[in-house]
Specification:
- The structure holds two protein chains of two kinds.
- Helices cover about 5% and strands about 45% of the residues of chain A.
- By secondary structure, chain A is mainly β.
- Chain A folds into two domains: about 120 residues, no CATH class; about 130 residues, no CATH class.
- Chain A is globular and about 75 Å long.
- The relative contact order of chain A is 0.18.
- Chain B is about 10% helix and about 40% strand.
- Chain B has two helices and 21 strands.
- In chain B, strand 6 and strand 7 form a beta hairpin.
- The radius of gyration of chain B is 24 Å and the shape is flat.
- The chains are: A mainly beta, B mainly beta.
């Protein structure tokens, strides 16, 4: 009995001390590059409650956008606009609705010239559709969009991003619920050291704004089990600029350096000097 | 012996858990840059408190245009004040013919008109304590006027959520709002004598008035455990004056200074503050403003031709 309690005590102590420690890369500088298999490699399960910002459509056509579309095909148009990157890249989209379905045809002003033409139609895929007394329509569309970033030296650079738009229409009573979400499925991958062992990590734009350095909203994933996938929860943590390391000679506060679209990320002593340009 | 160990186990566990938690103190003296944020996943839900608004069934005094209220519809007007220049934000909720609170008009530009561009859809409905709740999922962006210390008006965009609570008979019980814009900064912190660390902190407008300098009413969170999120236990008292032990172990009285729309948060010794002028928010080079003009006031009669279709004068 006495022995069992002692074992329990030791495990309790180990748990209490260990519970407070989160995995953190070994201090160093790590190159990153866009991941190969898109969003499928980052696994958000249903329990993760992950959802980027919900946005509404508006019936009001933005004054700086012109439509060159077969208007006779549609009963109405609804407009949406989203920003990506850090240099004012904005994309306008329009949903053409027939009477029967809200989401009929999607057009995105891909060349951002302020004119939406029939050639800019983007295919939507149906994820879920129910019409039993109530209607639920969930679709998504994928597009590779060019996004501009302002570097720390003021230079404008462009990167392609794979974007997934998720559209939702729910009609449970007279009032329909209509909204959309923007997901940036391009994640940045690198190989780092965790507790001295090499492992893959991924930087994920959690809030879908095309920027990779939103503390508290973006994520750093570690492929701890080496299955080639990044699992939300067990293998993820919110992006955090400061880390309290309690590891041997690295004991102290460390700063994670992540530019808006990084070529490298770094974990360095919090008070050390650095140039952001070295990480872009 | 076994009995003693039985008590010892929870005591040691509690000690270990408590040990890893540093009691909230405050930021060390310094002037810290702040930047606005509008996504709130880093903060606990309690950091965004709902504040009750003034409701009236009568039209606001200066109302110039509003959607026509048809037979069977009901209009409720409500308002709240944002910023330190007394900017009143009016909004209109309409109960439609099908007895649904479907439309909300927020006069974001302060032109006393509720036009189609001010319309916000209220799609989501939830049940709360026997009542129903509808709210703006995507925050409403309101340009707010702030008077700076030189008396100039600066305008800054604030994001606000609006909530309607109504009973099962669709009578509006109350309307509320919350400010979801908050500020993030990096300060210095001394967990114990001789040590000083950088630490991330958040400044939240808890009382929903759009001003971030209401001591004892607004809130500061410090990420003391470096986990990247601000927990409820990391909220520290937001006071104008306080005693602080510095890294050298010295005890002094400090003053905290924050402007209603804060560019920086300053913690300065009281004695030095009295004779100091280093923290001057009027320096345009250091404090760029988006616009220095107050909201445009239309000439009398200028709006006659500009009224959108379906709105009354």
């Amino acid at each position: 009995m006495k022995r069992r309690w002692l074992i329990f005590l030791v495990f309790g102590l180990l748990f209490a001390i260990g519970a407070g420690n989160r995995p953190v890369l070994t201090p160093g500088i790590y190159p990153v590059q866009p991941g190969g298999n898109g969003w499928d490699q980052v696994v958000f399960d249903k329990k993760s409650n992950y959802r980027p910002g919900i946005k509404y459509f508006t019936a009001i056509q933005p004054s700086d956008v012109r439509l060159e579309l077969p208007k006779e095909r549609f009963a109405s148009f609804s407009f949406g606009r989203f920003s990506l990157g850090s240099a004012g890249t904005e994309y306008t989209m329009v949903i053409g609705s027939q009477n029967r379905y809200f989401f009929d045809t999607l057009y995105i002003d891909l060349d951002r010239d302020g004119v939406i033409t029939a050639r800019e139609e983007v295919k939507m895929n149906e994820r879920q559709s129910v019409a039993l007394g109530y209607t639920v329509q969930e679709l998504d569309a994928e597009a590779r969009l060019t996004v501009a970033y302002r570097t720390s030296t003021g230079k404008i650079v462009e990167h392609p991003l794979d974007i997934r738009l998720i559209f939702y229409y729910g009609k449970f009573s007279d009032e329909p619920m209509v909204f959309y979400m923007v997901q940036n499925t391009t994640f940045l991958q690198g190989t780092g050291l965790l507790n001295g062992k090499p492992l893959s990590f991924a930087l994920v734009d959690g809030d879908g704004n095309g920027r990779y350095n939103d503390w508290g909203d973006d994520f750093l994933f570690y492929d701890k089990n080496g299955d080639g996938k990044y699992h939300f929860g067990k293998e993820s943590q919110v992006l955090n600029p400061l880390h309290d390391l309690k590891i041997g000679q690295n004991n102290g506060i460390y700063r994670l350096i992540v530019p808006v679209f990084p070529a490298k990320i770094g974990l360095i002593a919090a008070d050390a000097d650095y140039k952001m340009a070295d990480f872009e | 012996m076994a009995k003693k160990i039985k008590y010892l186990v929870p005591a040691v566990l509690l000690f270990c858990v408590g040990w890893s938690y540093r009691m909230p103190s405050y930021l060390n003296p310094g002037v810290y840059q702040l930047s606005p944020r509008t996504t709130w996943s880093s903060l606990p839900a309690s950091a965004f408190k709902l504040v009750k608004d003034d409701i009236s069934s009568a039209e606001p005094k200066d109302l110039k245009a509003a959607p026509q209220i048809k037979a069977g519809q009901k209009a409720v007007y409500a308002s709240f004040t944002l910023g330190n220049a007394g900017q009143k934000v009016n909004y209109l909720a309409i109960l439609d013919e099908k007895a649904k609170w479907q439309s909300l008009y927020v006069d974001v530009n302060g032109d006393n008109c509720f036009d189609e561009q001010d319309r916000v859809d209220l799609s989501f409905e939830e049940q709360v304590r026997g009542n129903r709740l509808k709210y703006t999922i995507e925050p409403v962006v309101i340009p707010v006027s702030y008077k700076n210390s030189a008396g100039r008006i600066i305008r800054k965009k604030l994001q606000v959520d609006i909530y309607l609570f109504y009973n099962p008979n669709n009578s509006l019980v109350e309307t509320m709002h919350r400010v979801v814009t908050w500020f993030e900064g990096e300060g210095r912190f001394s967990p114990k004598k001789g040590l000083e660390y950088p630490v991330r902190f958040a400044l939240v407008d808890l009382n929903g008035d759009g001003n971030f300098n209401n001591f004892s009413e607004d809130a500061v969170y410090i990420d003391l455990n470096y986990d990247g999120v601000f927990g409820q236990r990391e909220r520290v008292t937001f006071r104008a004056l306080f005693d602080l032990q510095t890294a050298t172990g010295e005890n002094k009285q400090y003053r905290q200074y924050v402007f209603p729309w804060p560019y920086r948060l300053a913690v300065v010794p009281v004695a030095e503050w009295e004779s100091s002028s280093f923290y001057d928010p009027v320096d345009d080079a250091e404090f760029p403003v988006e616009t220095v003009n107050p909201p445009a006031v239309a000439e009398p009669g200028a709006d006659k031709e500009a009224l959108p279709r379906g709105v009354k004068k």
